[in-house]
Amino acid sequence: MSETKKFLYVNRKAPYGTIYALESLEVVLIGAAFEQDVSMAFLDDGVFQLTKGQNTEAIGVKNFSPTFRALGDYEVTKLYVEMESLEERGLGPDDLQEITYEDEDDDWEEKPSIRIVSRTEMADIMADQDVVLSF
Predict the structure, then answer these.
(1) Global pTM value
(2) pLDDT tens, 74-119?
(3) Could you give the number of structural domains in the chain?
(4) Which range marks the domain in which residue 57 is found?
(5) Of 81, 92, 105, 133, whose CB has the highest number of CB atoms within 10 Å?
(6) How far is CA 30 from CA 7, 22, 25, 86, in A?
(7) Residue 1 domain-assigned (yes or no)
(8) What does the pLDDT read at residue 49?
């Protein structure tokens, strides 16, 4: 039996205005459904995908940001957010949605999915993956 490959989906675009963010989320859900080891990275304007309180009514598109909270149900529990990208956009950890998962190995305790990492740590995370897909 072959070892499970690690897939990292890198999100660099704002959530609306292009199809990249929504397409990335859909591909992640498909990969997770096929039991891939899936994680996501949010850099540059991609950090806006995880901000709380998104309202898309004025631009007339569906707000898909609540979907991120369902990722834990698909065992997607590693959402890496680059701290420098947050800071460069005047954001901090408190500006992000609370996204959690239930850890079955720890008596179903709820744990945070978002992990704030430095640019250097993000580079190490990317280097550790088998497949990196950028959106």
Answers:
(1) 0.92
(2) 899 999 999 999 999 999 999 999 999 999 889 999 999 999 999 9
(3) 1
(4) 6-134
(5) 81
(6) 12, 13, 9, 28
(7) no
(8) 96
